[in-house]
């Protein structure tokens, strides 16, 4: 659900968002909320959304609540990082300054979220597709331990989505590497074998 969009416009009202979340949960679904403003992020948390997509300007006072109710954070740091140079070079103004303030706070917020027990997941939200390895690297740069940054793009994400991991009878989805990505994060971009549902695809 798009919980907000423009910086100078109000977010989706909390009561409407909460009603939507309740209805989707009653049907057995989950709600991911796009939120970049403080209001949008706050409303998503208070409405009980299952995940915040971006969470820019997220109030860190809400992190304990997110952890308690199981709301995940998908910060998409790599997408914001790819736009940072252009934003810093753009004409000064309220929108630019708001974006920069949000971006500069995000790594610390991501680290604080992890430390508070919030599930942090890797997402990219932009072209080109297949750049989740870069997002994992950004999560590590933000302060997540190497295994947590890897898990955000693999086993933690699968578990959060309700998919089985390396268990008997589970789909054989594997990515193999010649070196340990926990020790060499750059290795994530160089898989030696990709197996999808038991079939070697690369």
Structure description:
By secondary structure, this protein is mainly α. The protein has two domains: 150 residues, TIM Barrel (Alpha-Beta Barrel), CATH 3.20.20.140; 39 residues, no CATH class. Helix content is 43%, strand content 10%. It is built from eight helices and six strands, in the order αβαβαβαααααβββ. Helix 3 links the parallel strand 2 and strand 3. Helix 4 packs antiparallel against helix 5. The longest helix is centred in the middle third of the chain and has 22 residues. The protein is globular. The mean pLDDT is 93.
The CATH topology annotation of the largest domain reads as TIM Barrel
CATH superfamily of the largest domain: Metal-dependent hydrolases
Please tell me what the overall shape is. Answer: globular
How many individual β-strands? 6
- Number of discrete helical segments: 8
Tell me what portion of residues adopts beta-strand conformation: 5-15%
Q: What is the CATH architecture annotation of the largest domain? A: Alpha-Beta Barrel
> Average pLDDT value?
93
Separation, N- and C-terminal Cα atoms: 34 Å
Short structural description:
By secondary structure, the protein is mostly helical. It has helices at residues 14-26, 38-46, 63-69, 77-89, 94-115, 132-142, 146-151, 155-160; strands at residues 32-35, 51-54, 72-74, 174-176, 193-196, 199-200. The strands form two sheets. Strands 1-2-3 form a three-stranded parallel beta sheet, with helices on one face. The protein has a three-stranded antiparallel beta sheet with strand order 4-5-6, with no helix packed on it.
């Amino acid at each position: 659900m798009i919980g907000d969009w423009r910086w100078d416009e109000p977010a989706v009202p909390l009561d409407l968002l909460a009603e939507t979340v309740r209805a989707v949960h009653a049907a057995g679904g989950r709600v991911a909320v796009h939120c970049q403003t403080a209001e949008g992020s706050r409303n998503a948390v208070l409405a009980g959304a299952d995940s915040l997509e971006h969470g820019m300007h997220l109030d860190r006072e809400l992190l304990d609540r997110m952890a308690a109710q199981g709301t995940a954070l998908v910060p998409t740091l790599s997408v914001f990082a790819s736009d940072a140079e252009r934003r810093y070079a753009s004409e000064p103004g309220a929108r630019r300054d708001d974006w920069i303030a949000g971006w500069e706070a995000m790594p610390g917020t991501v680290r604080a979220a992890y430390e508070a027990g919030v599930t942090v997941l890797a997402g990219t939200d932009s072209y080109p597709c297949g750049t989740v390895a870069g997002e994992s690297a950004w999560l590590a740069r933000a302060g997540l331990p190497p295994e947590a940054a890897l898990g955000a793009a693999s086993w933690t994400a699968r578990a959060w989505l309700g998919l089985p991991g390396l268990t008997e009878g589970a789909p054989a989805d594997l990515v193999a590497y010649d070196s340990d990505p926990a020790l060499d994060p750059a290795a994530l971009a160089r898989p030696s074998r990709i197996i999808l549902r038991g079939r070697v695809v690369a």
